[in-house]
Design a protein that fits this description.
heterodimer; A: alpha/beta; Pyruvate-ferredoxin Oxidoreductase, domain 3; Rossmann fold; 6-stranded mixed beta sheet; B: alpha/beta; 8-stranded mixed beta sheet; 3-stranded antiparallel beta sheet; 12 helices; about 30% helix; globular
């Protein structure tokens, strides 16, 4: 569609397309995360389905202009259903030479580059390690792309020239110019961001004014600069009707925990120690003091979980949040919680390991640790979220299972979905089920005797909190006598208690939903079995493969221990089982060991999520093998 | 504010605090005395039994929890401070006690120890210091004297011990006291003082391990040496000790000096008068255990006391303040957040 722009009397082509991927890339200090999130919010409000992927270095301010300091934010938005942030991008915003160097490889051939020329001066080229005399936006090396060279720094200065701001403030506003320009390019209004700026900088009128001016200047630049001849329009998606918000996985986890506490009528207690990429959950819950939420920044990871154990013992809904290194430190205390048989939710937002590993990158490599990472036989419930918004459901579910089954529950998320966002058709409070809580008030044994380890039909013991008159008793980490909970070294009693604790977890399988095929037929040549955050990529790849005529289905595990009781039955209806994981084959090992099914694995351990195209290739290869 | 201090309906006896479990410490262990003194004073605390909670870590001392008929958790090594603080935050009405030893509190639990005192939870911490690892059968501890010969140090340990009360003071403990197993009356008095204190208490109990470190504190407990080696502090009273109460301590500037008050050289009026709330004097008092050039007597009693806000009170106050100011956010508002959009078909 070609229209004559009313203001500029310039021919501008508006292309309609059903999905677009944009990558904002710049120095850590360039504000690319904020820019990406603002673009995302506007796309979401206008009804696009979307998925985002913030990708940033672990250093807060790595040396300016270097490859190490590049911070990216990728957003995939569409008028169709979107399940991943996209393998490759259509548009790359490169604020400096380092950003182009890092992110050019995944720009689609023929894609658009918006380059900030001020970021391609000799100093920046040198910092990005381009050979002397080479400037990629000036030589012919980008001939296969459309390159828009814009001196964003200068335009920002010009826009703010009358305001008398310092260089620093001007420098900080240039991301708004980019945002304005991109809004123009994708035919989106600046209104939502202006509203955001007004709220955020309401008390700093100068900064507010500077941001709004620059934002508008960016939009106007698109409108007037002659070399922009094309705009793109992505219509709103046909999402199920309802009210939506945009949400990241960590935010969804936080409010899932809040919702569970409310539905259980318990005070929420979070004992935690800051660690990337889990800290945002602690940040978020710390805002809810008005709701009585108790957040405790402990002196270390061990104190984080131990304070939560104390709080659970005293009757709060107790949570600890962490990532791999913290998980390792918490293992002894998790064993104690297993022995005490008290509710406890351990949130592990996985990141690249081992050791400090890749703190800001994603991985699914803590599954076997969750399964086996305690001394002795100490089974716990393990569940995993499959998308940012699913973190809400699974965090809520973790609390429900912990309370109902008096057990620690490990909730696995990872850096990819924790920081990524998507539109979420959120529930209303009354759509959420109540979580029944029963504190024992009277002795439960014969002759008025208290039996703290007497079990119900699910092998669950009662929750008995200090302050309850007449039920004073002692619990601890030493092996317990069945029923009484007194210390016991009796050999047969120990074996019985090992069995009881395992049986309790096994019976959780009757309290979780059966597994359903997510995409494709219920029987066929190949099933792709995933777990956790690979959901979107597998779903997209399987759907595309089906559309291309392949016989493949997708099933996805959210309950890792115990697994759904029909899992084996579901898998055996297929000739082959393919298990893609962002680890070296951990679920693969469990499935093979448990069911003796000759599943094949597909590993990616690069700190990055799967791409749809690679998964699709693997599906075809497995079918043909 | 403290409903824990409501008077219970029926008068309890020490026997009511015995759990009935067989006590399994070695014969002659100092822990028996501590258990007895705690059970003796508990009926007088005025706290309903169901509100009393004991949390312990690992070690001989930590078995204490099993012998008290209160609520209790025998947890994992070194972590009692972290667990008990969770209990107190979850329910500030509980009267929480913590039992630990020199290894549990000062070695594996060292990090929790310092932060526990800095944050000042209103929890009573008792550290049974026997200067040895007993449950693991005799290795040196962080309070063992340098050169200690044990199974892991057959040629003598190489390092200086902690001075526990000095460490507690450095960690901003708001109550620091020392007592010993062989002085039941003094221990009872100190336990009561600790309970009266609104804040984290560091009560160091010198406790004899008859099996692995027998007689470590006999200098302070046996009548042949006690009067020369120990000094009993009382608020507002001068520092006097010695077989005939002939010795006193005065401050020459910041320097403590032992003088004779009966040979005419010095008078009682010149002596240092104990002030529990004087932090500078507390710094000097806690350092007595470290002076190698002059033999100072070991101080017993309340070394330091400071009234400052507890973490648990501050938490409750902050929750109430924010709730009064901005109210409770409804779950629907939490779920929807600030920005939503609606899709109609």
């Amino acid at each position: 569609m070609e229209t004559l722009d009313q203001k500029t009397m310039r021919a501008i082509d508006i292309k309609e397309t059903d999905h677009i991927v944009v990558r904002f890339s710049g120095d850590s200090g360039d504000g690319m995360q904020l820019t990406g999130m603002q673009f995302t919010d506007t796309a979401a409000f206008l009804g696009n389905d979307l998925s985002t992927f913030p990708d940033y270095p672990s250093e807060i301010r790595a040396p300016i202009g270097t490859v190490a300091g590049v911070s990216g934010f990728q957003v995939h938005f569409g008028s169709k259903e979107i399940f991943t942030p996209g393998d490759e991008y259509d548009v790359l915003v490169a604020m400096n030479a380092a950003a182009l160097k890092v992110d050019l490889p995944r720009l689609k051939k023929g894609g658009i580059i918006v380059a900030n020329t001020a970021g391609f001066d000799n100093k920046n080229l040198n910092l990005a390690n381009y050979p002397a005399g080479v400037n990629p936006i000036e030589d012919n090396s980008l001939a296969n792309y459309t390159v828009h060279k814009v001196d964003i720094t200068r335009h920002t200065k010009d826009a703010l020239s009358e305001m008398g701001l310092g260089t620093k403030e001007v420098e900080r506003s240039k991301n708004m110019f980019v945002l304005g320009l991109l809004f123009w390019m994708f035919d989106k209004p600046v209104d939502y961001t202006i509203q955001f700026i007004e709220e955020k900088f309401g008390k700093k009128p100068e900064i507010k004014e500077a941001n709004i001016r620059t934002l508008r200047a960016g939009w106007n630049f698109g409108e007037t600069a002659e070399f922009f001849t094309t705009r793109y329009r992505v219509n709103s998606a046909h999402l199920p009707k309802g009210t939506y918000r945009n949400i990241t996985g960590n935010h969804a986890t936080a409010i899932g925990l809040l919702a569970a506490a409310e539905k259980a009528g318990l005070t929420l207690f979070l004992g935690s120690y800051p660690i990337t990429p889990a800290t945002d959950i602690l940040h978020e819950l710390s805002k809810y003091k008005g709701n009585g939420v108790k957040t405790f920044q402990a002196e270390d990871e061990i104190a984080g979980i131990c304070s939560a154990i104390g709080a659970s013992y005293a009757g709060n809904l107790a949570i600890t949040t962490t990532s791999g290194p913290g998980m390792a430190l918490k293992t002894e205390a998790m064993g104690l919680a297993t022995m005490l048989e008290i509710p406890l939710v351990v949130v592990n937002v996985q990141r690249g390991g081992p050791s400090t590993g890749l703190p800001t990158k994603t991985e699914q490599a803590d599954l076997l640790m969750a399964m086996h990472g305690r001394h002795g036989e100490a089974p716990v419930v393990i569940i995993a979220a499959s998308s940012p918004s699913d973190c809400f459901d699974m965090a809520f579910e973790a609390c429900r299972l912990a309370i109902k089954h008096m057990t620690p529950v490990i909730f696995l998320s990872d850096g990819y979905i924790a920081n990524g966002s998507e539109p979420w058709r959120f529930p209303t409070a009354d759509q959420l089920a109540e979580i029944p809580v029963h504190f024992l008030k009277e002795p439960n044994g014969p002759d008025g005797k208290l039996l703290p380890y007497k079990r119900d039909e699910n092998f669950v013991r009662p929750w008995i909190i200090p302050g309850t008159k007449g039920l004073e008793h002692r619990i601890g980490g030493l092996e317990k006598q069945d029923q009484t909970g007194n210390v016991s070294y009796d050999p047969l009693n120990h074996e019985l208690m090992i069995h009881n604790r395992a049986e309790k977890i096994k019976r959780v399988a009757f309290d979780i939903p059966d597994l359903k095929v997510d995409s494709g037929k219920e029987t066929g040549k190949l099933v792709v079995l995933g777990w956790g955050s690979t959901y979107g990529a597998i779903k997209t790849a399987v759907r595309e493969a089906i559309a291309a005529g392949h016989d493949v289905s997708h099933v996805h595990l959210k309950y890792l221990n115990p697994m759904p009781k029909n899992l084996e039955e579901v898998l055996r209806k297929f000739d082959k089982v393919l298990i893609p994981e962002m680890n070296s084959g951990q679920l693969l090992q469990l499935i093979r060991a448990k069911f003796l099914i000759p599943a094949v694995g597909y590993s990616k351990v690069q700190g990055l999520p799967f791409t749809t195209s690679a998964l699709k290739d693997k599906i075809v290869e497995t079918l043909n093998a | 504010m403290e409903t824990a201090n409501q008077i219970p309906a029926e008068k309890l006896t020490p026997k009511d605090f015995s759990s009935g479990q067989d006590v399994k410490w070695c014969p002659g262990c100092g822990d028996y005395s501590i258990l007895k003194q705690v059970q003796t004073i508990f009926p007088d605390l005025g706290v309903p039994k169901e509100n009393l909670v004991f949390i312990s870590g690992i070690g001989c001392s930590s078995r204490f929890t099993y012998y008290m008929d209160t609520y209790g958790m025998h947890s994992i090594h070194g972590r009692a401070a972290a667990i008990s603080s969770g209990v107190k935050m979850a329910n500030p009405n509980l009267d929480v006690w913590m039992v630990s030893g020199d290894g549990d509190a000062l070695s594996i639990g060292g990090n929790h120890f310092i932060h526990f005192f800095r944050k000042n939870f209103n929890i009573k911490m008792l550290v049974f210091n026997n200067q040895i690892y007993s449950l693991t059968k005799g290795q040196y501890s962080p309070t063992s004297e340098k050169g200690k010969v044990t199974k892991t140090t057959p040629y003598g340990s190489l390092e200086e011990p902690f001075n526990p009360s000095e460490l507690a003071l450095g960690a901003k403990a708001s109550f620091i006291a020392r007592t010993l197993d062989r002085d039941p009356k003094h221990m009872q008095a100190i336990l009561k003082r600790a309970h009266e204190h609104h804040g984290a208490t560091f009560v160091e109990v010198y406790q004899n391990c008859p099996v692995f470190n027998d007689g470590a504190f006999f200098a302070y407990s046996e009548k042949e040496t006690k009067k020369e080696q120990a000094i009993y502090l009382e608020h507002g009273k001068p520092l006097i000790f010695g077989n005939d109460n002939e010795k006193g301590i005065l401050l020459d500037g910041w320097k403590p000096v032992v003088v004779n008050i009966k040979d005419g050289s010095h008078s009682v009026d010149q002596l240092w008068v104990h002030d529990e709330k004087d932090k500078i004097k507390a710094t000097i008092l806690t350092s007595f255990a470290d002076h190698h050039d002059v033999e100072f007597p070991r101080p017993f009693g309340v070394l330091y006391l400071e009234n400052r806000a507890t973490y648990d009170d501050s938490l409750v106050e902050q929750l109430q303040l924010i709730n009064a100011k901005s109210g409770r956010k409804s779950l629907d508002k939490i779920l929807s957040g600030d920005k939503t959009w609606t899709i109609n078909d």
